[in-house]
Write a structure and sequence with these properties.
Layout lengths: L10 E3 L9 E3 L1 H6 L1 E3 L7 H10 L4 E6 L13 E6 L5 H8 L20 E6 L5 H7 L13 E5 L9 H13 L3 E9 L6 H13 L3 E6 L8 H22 L9 E4 L7 H6 L1 H11 L3 E3 L17 H6 L8 H7 L7 H10 L2 H10 L16 H13 L6 H14 L9 H15 L1 H39 L12 H29 L1
Parallel strand pairs: 5-7, 5-8, 8-9, 9-10
Antiparallel strand pairs: 1-2, 1-10, 3-11, 4-6, 6-7
Helix pairs in contact: 2-9, 5-6, 5-14, 6-7, 6-14, 7-13, 12-13, 13-14, 16-17, 17-18
This protein binds guanosine-5'-triphosphate (GTP) and magnesium ion.
Magnesium ion binds next to helix 3.
């Protein structure tokens, strides 16, 4: 990151072997050894900007249920996972260089995203590319982007048990998913639920990258980031030691980002790091780092003396050798079965999955984890998901209301009044009938009064016309007689009106 306040670190690289510690990498160091496959040798930062923004990112669709997701065999999907409020949706917006809420909805309250939201990034494939790809399904949508990013609901606070099952299904069954970005709050650090998710990812053998978010909020600066990265690394090492057989790949760069920071300069400075993390998982980046530094099938963990004793005699040499030859130096299933019996009760199930995972994702194998084994991992994950408390439910209702406010102004005021009157009529039928009778009577009186006035006006008109010869101007006349006549008429008219009114009153009262 740039700026005096923030450490200039884009990632912490995990060493291939446990003899050395993790080390900070500056943005320059991180970017100079990589380039896009579509633009070899070109500056990565510029090419990544083009990739993410030339063809504007777009919302494709949202789905809550795994079984009703659209078919997709052509576009690689990268999913964004993490605890509620860690900054997943902000991450999507930042990649697309959109302001908050422009693409994905962001909220300071946990539990904003409640469905799997699919966003398209990168240029649309050409016709040639599409033809080359082909498709298994006729009803599959024609791709409009290079890859999809899937913004997921968060786990932990305000999440649902049901959602845990959907995540697990998505990670283990969706063929299009090529990688998972796990976001971890840099200040808060990894939680049990994060490690349970990582266990699921390792069981599903899904390529994984860890991205620390909200680095701008880390009070201890570089030390704080280092501490969090180390905790993540140690937790993953423990998972690897128990459940993988070396086929789970996790990026050895723990990326540092602050894409949703209020300070836009800070936010912008880490966007390239975030873009690189996603592009790598989508399979769009060529890395030119020396092989020993990059993570391959061999996780690079040190094998303890005990493990070595349990390892089959056919596997010789150092882990480094095995890495270079591409062969796994992992112990065989038999020796690990023995080892599993030494493990504590909780981890035994994980140890079982260690030797039963398949070599390649998607390929069926008799070694695939059994349903029961996956269920144990899943149960652990689901245990970390809180079911709704009444407070959570109230918050959800509130959020729903914010999203779909009641349509109070859709009907006109007149219609509302009429509806209310009808409601009242139903509620108080007796009063309504009496009110209606009185109202009808009043209207009747009003009508008669109006008719009487009209008749009187017509009568007075004829009176004036008979008194005054046609063509004479009443107003401009200087004749005293004429003036008197007008006054007399006024008085007579006023008297007749009063009488008439009295009579009317008598008639109708
Ligand atoms: N300071 C800082 N705040 C951030 C950063 N990233 C996200 N935020 C804030 O964190 C809050 C949550 O962000 P979201 O992107 O909605 O988080 P989410 O993980 O999608 O949350 P859910 O959808 O509820 O699971 C918002 O208030 C963001 O502004 C960051 O890098 N730095
Ligand atoms: Mg969200």
């Amino acid at each position: 990151m740039t700026g005096a306040m923030y450490p200039n670190v884009a990632a912490f690289t995990v060493p291939e072997f446990r003899t050395s510690s993790i080390s900070g990498v500056t943005p320059d160091q991180l970017f100079k050894t990589s380039s896009l496959l579509s633009a070899p040798g070109q500056p990565l930062e510029e090419e990544l900007t083009k990739l993410y923004t030339d063809n504007p990112a777009a919302f494709i669709y949202a789905e809550s249920n795994f079984y009703t997701l659209k078919k997709n065999t052509r576009v690689p999907e990268v999913c964004i996972l993490g605890r509620s409020n860690v900054g997943k949706s902000s991450f999507v917006n930042a990649l697309a260089r959109r302001r908050n809420d422009a693409l994905a909805f962001v909220s300071s309250k946990a539990g904003k995203t409640r469905s799997m939201n699919m966003y398209g990034f990168g240029p649309a494939p050409t016709v040639k590319e599409l033809q080359a790809q082909g498709s298994k399904y006729k009803d599959e949508d024609i791709p409009t982007h290079t890859f999809h990013l899937v913004d997921m609901p968060g786990y932990g606070h305000a999440s649902q048990e049901e959602w845990g099952k959907n995540i697990a299904l998505y990670l283990s069954k969706r063929q299009a998913v090529k990688g998972a970005i796990v976001l971890i709050d840099a200040e808060v650090g990894p939680k049990d639920s994060d490690f349970h998710l990582l266990q699921l990812l390792s069981a599903a053998q899904l390529k994984t990258a860890i991205v620390l978010t909200k680095a701008d909020k880390v009070k201890k600066g570089w030390e704080g980031l280092y501490e969090t990265s180390k905790n993540v690394w140690q937790g993953i090492c423990a998972i690897e030691a128990r459940i993988t057989d070396g086929n789970w790949t996790w990026e050895k760069d723990i990326y540092v980002t602050a894409v949703g920071a209020r300070d836009t300069a800070v936010a912008r400075s880490t966007v390239t790091t975030a873009r690189l993390a996603v592009a790598r998982l989508a399979g769009l980046v060529k890395d030119e780092r020396p092989n020993v530094e990059r993570n391959t099938r061999w996780s690079g963990k040190m094998v303890s003396f005990d493990d070595l004793q349990l390892a089959p005699s056919t596997v010789g040499g150092s882990p480094k050798d095995s890495h270079n030859t591409g062969k796994s130096a992992r112990p065989t299933s038999e020796s690990w079965k023995a080892k599993a019996s030494e493990l504590d009760e909780g981890s035994r199930a994980h140890a079982c999955t260690f030797y039963s995972t398949v070599a390649q994702r998607g390929k069926s194998s008799p070694k695939q984890p059994t349903r029961a084994e996956l269920d144990v991992i899943l149960d652990n994950f689901i245990k970390t998901l809180k079911t709704d408390t009444p407070r959570d439910q109230a918050r959800r209702v509130q959020q729903e209301r914010e999203r779909h406010p009641p349509k109070i102004f859709k009907t006109s005021f007149k219609k509302q009044e009429k509806r209310r009157a009808l409601g009242l009529q139903k509620q108080f039928p007796e009063q309504t009938i009496r009110t209606r009778v009185v109202l009808d009577r009043r209207l009747e009186i009003e009508e008669r009064r109006r008719q009487a006035l009209d008749a009187r006006e017509a009568k007075s008109k004829t009176l004036i016309e008979s008194e005054w010869p046609a063509g004479e101007d009443v107003g401009s006349s200087k004749d005293a007689n004429h003036t008197m006549k007008v006054n007399e008429f006024d008085e007579a008219f006023a008297a007749s009106k009063g009488l008439a009114d009295d009579k009317e009153q008598e008639r109708y009262s």
